[in-house]
């Protein structure tokens, strides 16, 4: 009896297709007493059956009439004994097996190339997305660089006075800077190391003019500019920053002052 190790690769497939010689077929049938071989043959037959059903085609509607007409014609002809052509039959069987194998291989290759194409398409989409992110980062970096250059130009401009606002009692470590142009009245603020606030709160800059606080604008810490343009100020003697409700206040909350600085005359 043939063991599984003695059965050549493809023998079971050829057996299922009826393409083995009598001797080979008997050897396989003897080996089918092995449950493992029998189970493998059953799986092969189920696969071939599924493939056949998946690719079946309905016969033409007039096929039966043509067949019966041809059969009647053949009955009228003398019968000529035919010599069996085992070699041709076997050859046809091998061609059938080759056709089935080619169909299965073609389907597998089609699936393989589809998966590879889909993988390549996904990789291309990822690469394009990464390229887009790099472009956005590059644009953001250029904007930051441009803002830094503009801020540096303002800070080194002799037409602007630089006023340091130092932390008051309770927050001595805080520091901000105001740039003020006496001619144009333009005012810019560098927020320094001010701390983050709750969403319902906001910082507000005040200029002290003739002893009275004047609103110079509110701001948040999430600005991407190194210098924030504030409201113009006429003749300030000092600047201060307080913490106010979001949107600002009409008068400063003095117990919420964080930094203050005077202009040197």
TrEMBL record:
> Domain Anti-sigma K factor RskA C-terminal, which positions?
96-253
The record ties this protein, via InterPro entries, to: Anti-sigma-K/W_factor, Anti_sigma_zinc_sf, RskA_C
Q: Assign the protein's first listed, main location to one coarse class.
A: membrane
Say which domain of life the source belongs to: Bacteria
List where the protein spans the membrane.
94-114
Q: Where in the cell is it found?
A: Cell membrane; Membrane
Q: Which keywords does the record carry?
A: Cell membrane, Membrane, Transmembrane, Transmembrane helix
Q: Does the keyword Transmembrane helix apply?
A: yes
Topology of this chain in the membrane: Single-pass membrane protein
Under which name does UniProt file this protein?
Regulator of SigK
Organism for this UniProt entry: Reichenbachiella ulvae
């Amino acid at each position: 009896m043939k063991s599984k190790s003695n059965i050549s690769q493809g023998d079971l497939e050829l057996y299922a297709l009826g393409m083995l010689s009598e001797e080979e077929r008997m050897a396989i049938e003897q080996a089918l007493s092995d449950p493992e071989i029998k189970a493998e043959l059953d799986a092969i037959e189920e696969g071939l059956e599924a493939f056949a059903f998946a690719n079946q085609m309905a016969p033409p509607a007039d096929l039966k009439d043509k067949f019966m007409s041809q059969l009647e014609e053949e009955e009228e002809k003398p019968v000529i004994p035919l010599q069996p052509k085992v070699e041709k039959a076997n050859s046809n069987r091998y061609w059938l097996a080759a056709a089935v194998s080619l169909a299965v291989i073609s389907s597998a290759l089609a699936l393989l190339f589809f998966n590879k194409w889909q993988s390549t398409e996904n990789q291309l989409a990822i690469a394009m997305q990464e390229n887009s992110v790099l472009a956005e980062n590059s644009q953001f970096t250029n904007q930051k660089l441009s803002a830094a250059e503009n801020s540096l130009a303002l800070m080194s401009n002799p037409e602007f006075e630089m006023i340091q606002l130092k932390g008051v009692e309770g927050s001595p470590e805080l520091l901000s800077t105001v740039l003020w142009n006496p001619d144009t009245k333009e005012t810019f603020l560098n927020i320094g190391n001010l701390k983050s606030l709750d969403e319902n709160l906001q910082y507000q800059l005040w200029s002290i003019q003739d002893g009275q606080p004047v609103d110079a604008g509110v701001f948040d810490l999430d600005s991407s500019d190194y210098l924030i343009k504030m409201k113009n100020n006429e003749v300030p003697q000092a600047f201060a920053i307080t913490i106010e409700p979001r949107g600002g206040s009409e008068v400063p909350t003095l117990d919420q002052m964080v930094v203050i600085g005077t202009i040197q005359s």
